[in-house]
Every structure is written in C-alpha cells, then in structure tokens.
Specification:
- The structure is a single chain.
- The longest helix has 14 residues, at 148-161.
- This protein starts with a helix and ends with a strand.
- It has 274 residues and is of the alpha+beta class.
- It has helices at 2-13, 21-28, 32-35, 98-109, 148-161, 178-186, 194-197, 212-215, 217-223; strands at 18-19, 39-45, 48-49, 61-67, 70-74, 84-86, 92-96, 124-133, 136-143, 167-170, 190-193, 198-200, 206-208, 250-255, 267-272.
- It is 27% helix and 27% strand.
- It is built from nine helices and 15 strands.
- The chain is elongated and about 75 Å long.
- The protein folds into three domains: 2-96, no CATH class; 98-223; 226-274, no CATH class.
Length: 274
Amino acid sequence: MGGMSKFWQGIEEAPGLSAMEITWRERLGDAYEWAQPFLRPTGELASSYPCMVNMGCGLPHHVVIHSPDHIIGACACELGCERIRLKRSDIVLYELDRVKLDKGIAAAMGLQRDGDEIHLPRGTARLGTHSPCAGFRFPVYLTVQSDREGLAHTVNDVLARDTTPFIMMAPTRGFASSDMEARLAARGATFLALDEILHTNGGVGFQLTRPLDQVLTQFHAANLPDRDETPALPFFPTPPDGHLPAPGALLPVAFDLSLDCRSVPRLAHLAQIH
C-alpha cells in the first residue's frame, strides 16, 4: 500500500507533469516500476538534466545534442562540474497516460463505459457509470488537481451541470474539505479518494481494497430504494450499446428474489426475451 500511496500522491502533486525517467523515479519511489506502463513518451526531449556530480553544484545541466550518439549535460556553474554523458533515452520526456489510467480504474470498479463526451474542467474525466441495479445509473468522475481551490472549482462545476447523484474521485483526500463533501452529500453525491479504495492487483492494474458495495454503503443508502418500501428489484445488466437484444435472444440476467438491488451476491441465469 505504501508504494501505491506514493503513486497517487505523485500524480496529484504535479498533474500534467512532463518529465524524464529520472524525475519520475524520484517522484514515485518504489511505485515507479509498477507505474511505468501508465507513463507515455510525449515525443519531446528535455533541455536540461539534474546535476549528478558528487558534491557538485546541484544545478540543472544544459543538454547539448551533438549527434544521436553524442549527448552531454553541460554545467556553467563556478564549481566547474564535469560534463555528464547521456543517452537519448535519458532525456525522453514522459507524461501520465490518463486514458490508460482511467480505463484501468473503471475496470477495477466495474463501471459501464457510457461514451458520453462532455466538456469538463481541466484534469477531469467521466470514467463511466455505476449501475448497481436495474434503472439506476450514477456518473463517476475522476479529477486530478494540484490544490484545494482546483478541486473545489471542479466539484462546483459538476454540481452545476449534473442534476443526478454522482461519484467524484481524486487521487487522495489531501485537497478535500468538509464543506466540499457537505455540498456533495446535499445533492446525494459522494467523494472517494483512490488511495483509500484501490491497490495493485499484482500486475499492471488495480483492484478494490474491499467490495464496492462496502465502499459505497452511504451512497447506496442515500440513492437506492429501501427494501422495506420497495419490492426486490432484479439486476439487469445494461447492454454496452444501450439496446435490448432481438426477441428470442438469450440474455444473461441475474435474479435473486430474496435480495434487493443493494445486495451483492446474485445468481446468474439465462433469461429468454420474448
């Protein structure tokens, strides 16, 4: 969990960061090797490189490219630090691959990709919808901001445009405030910090630290019908394209008449559509 926490903190401390491998390694620490697949080259090269000279000046060295095989980091400090021999791979700039990251998070949470393209504040994306049972679809957003004001602005923007209860997520709870969470709760929405609910699945991906129904207990309580007031609702998986199959087609549907739509254990059956 320590490595994952470092990852979430690292991307939140400098959203939109474009940096060399050496900088990402320093920022992410033990999480770098796991996080590397979520970094992509920008197609640009760095113009400076950290001073690596023992007892040197500590100032950035200017990158000079004489040829693809002859690249140096030159320092103009008064200490006269020696030049650093570099390879092209040393100065390649990398950035966080938000598309890949967003898809990984959505997959771990079992979100449905709804394909909605909407204009959102910088650093914010709609990952999909959370559909705990038939007839209930809640938008899920991820925002990566660098300060408390940025997160508050994003939450206010989504509250103004989305009239349905939704889930807002950020890498950590560091920029959240009780006032912000109160505004969300007043609309039936909720806030989740990814470093509290996700960890590595042992490969290149995420998994929940506990079942999603436990993560969203309060959200479900505020937005789903109560079992004492509403007959049990069957769980109908929504087709990816939003269309029902043709008459006579077989559709996997999960029913458990003893459970309401908040319940997690459901038995999968094949139902005939007539």
